[in-house]
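_Full entry_
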Amino acid sequence: MKNWLLPSLLLLLALQTKAGIIHANMRNCIFLSEKDSSYVETQFTVTAKDLSFIQRDDKKYEATVEVTLLYMKDSIVFNHFKYLLFSEAIDDTASINFNLTDLKRINLPKGDYTIELYLKDENETTSTNYLWEGVTVDYNIDSLMISDIELVESYKLSDESNVFTKRGYEILPLAVEYFPTAMSSLNFYSEIYHADKLISDENYVITVFIHETTSQSPYRDLVVYSKQKPSHTSVIFSSFDLSKLPTGSYFITLEVRTRKNELLGSRSLFFYRSNTLLTFNPSQLDSINVENIFSSTLASDSLNFWMQSLYPIASNEEKNYIEYFEKTKSETGMRAFIYKFWKDRNPTDPLNEWMAYKNSVMYAEENFKTPNRHGFETDMGRVYLQYGPPSDALSEKHEPGAYPYQIWHYYFIKPNQTNVRFVFYNPDLVIGDYKLIHSDALGEIRNPRWQYLIYDAVNKHGSRDSDVTKFPEHFGSRVDDYFKE
């Protein structure tokens, strides 16, 4: 399964009303039913304080949102919902600090879909806008499969049946991959299918862990292990304590392995953590003697360059060091940091590790540098250093009616992602600074309207019309074919 998301951690919907701006978040998770039919669970929240509350006959106040959900396949409405969503009734509108949360489940056969969510405040004059997300349903019922990882705001055991209940739990979903300081735990839910078709009577092992985007290793002790007996469907439901997780980008990854440690399948989800309670302590480098290490030979006027060049592959904690030394310009500190950076990655031969990356940085400098930015500071340079050279790359500079663009194709990138593409374009036409405008890699910018950015300068075909998500085909247009190759 792949999900194409809007290019933001918070999928925000802005609807202009007299009361202000309505903010909303949407996630779509794909599961299998007991009868092996695939279905999507569309989860969304609406910020209640952005809505207009009207007093009812019983003197309580209530907000109403008109919800329209469209499930599009090949530009045709495959299915839809349209209904009114009511807030809880409150006594006072002076302090509104809750969200309206809802979800819909709908069966979807294999294929590519665009899910569009339209919201309208029924109590205010509003202009309509919407959130959209592309999803691909590609379950194979003859192999072990893992559902999407669902983030959970709260849950409890329940014998009742309502829109939020599933497999014996009442689950209130969390429709955004962002965890601020106030949220100290991450709850998640997932399902594993058809283990009984691949595994005999022995138990199999499930590992769920949090790791940084630059590493496949669990971050400290943020890992959960469990054993399951092979069955048609197994439920994975647990949580992580995020109180000591620093600010930065992360993945939560679920792996299924045999007792012999053979990987049977995995699923990952990107999320962002903000934690203002943790303090940064640069004194940890004080014990490093910088006189006899390879970084002591670096020229003083290039120290900052080489330190900044590490940013694309640095951990969240290491980025704190880079930002700190960018301000302080401490030569001793920078030399110690560069040495420790590569010593942590290769304790036996940090110099060789450093030289290999140095060559990559120089390649990025030669091929992606612009008049005002180093190669590693550009989008292309960052992607090249973070993921390595692409398996295939297509460059189109003279397509009629289009800005110059490039599409990079990776057969595999971590964590466990295959057939990944990055789309860059050059709107400046002079300095050659190609901007990343879309990728289907986890944690990267995702924009269903990326084709408009490539063609908008000349064509202006509906580029400001949010109802149009696919660029009209015209003479010489090849970008869609290139992306799908």
